[in-house]
Design goal:
The protein is of the alpha+beta class and 173 residues long. 33% of the residues lie in helices and 16% in strands. The protein has a 4-stranded antiparallel β-sheet with strand order 1-2-4-3, with helices on both faces. The two termini are 33 Å apart. It binds flavin mononucleotide.
Amino acid sequence: MFFDIIRSRRSIRHYLAQPVEREKVEQLLEAALRAPSGKGIYPWEFLVVDQPELLQKMVRCKKNGSNFIQEAPLAIVVCADPAQSDTWIEDAAVATAFMTLAAEAMDLGSCWVQIRGRESAAGGSSESFLRELLNIPERLAVLCCLVVGYPAEQKAPREITEHKLQKVHHDTV
Ligand SMILES: Cc1cc2nc3c(=O)[nH]c(=O)nc-3n(C[C@H](O)[C@H](O)[C@H](O)COP(=O)(O)O)c2cc1C
């Protein structure tokens, strides 16, 4: 059920050496393509990476927080064309969030790797690193990569504590 998926989803950074079936990849992409988008423009493009040599090289797309890509069988690079829409960041983020939930629904683990505004291990931008490695054209900006695979770690659902409930206000702050 939907709320079980919402509750159990965690960022998974260890994966089994097991490929993600093509039908599941298609369903992840369907979830992304069905996400809402400002003015219905859908400025996003998704790049599915499953070649082990490329995934290995992608580890260096960031200084930190990307090492686990080397374990993963799949990464979906989420790009968008800023010239098409001023809500490209929001659109691409919502599509990514939809994919995290779709992954959970199919017993896959996933983790967002932030690319926009980050630096690669070599010192340039994470975006230009991926642009060169994956031949991403200049017209596309890169928001993030969603790294996906069958989980090799279990994580308990996060608690919604009193502290977190203080983030919610009613009528006025
Ligand atoms: C915008 C954004 C950027 C993130 N960037 C990274 C990242 O670069 N590397 C990483 O390991 N996790 C990244 N994460 C995952 C967060 O660390 C994770 O969602 C957070 O710690 C909460 O844990 P949970 O997803 O298990 O609930 C990112 C998540 C979001 C939403």
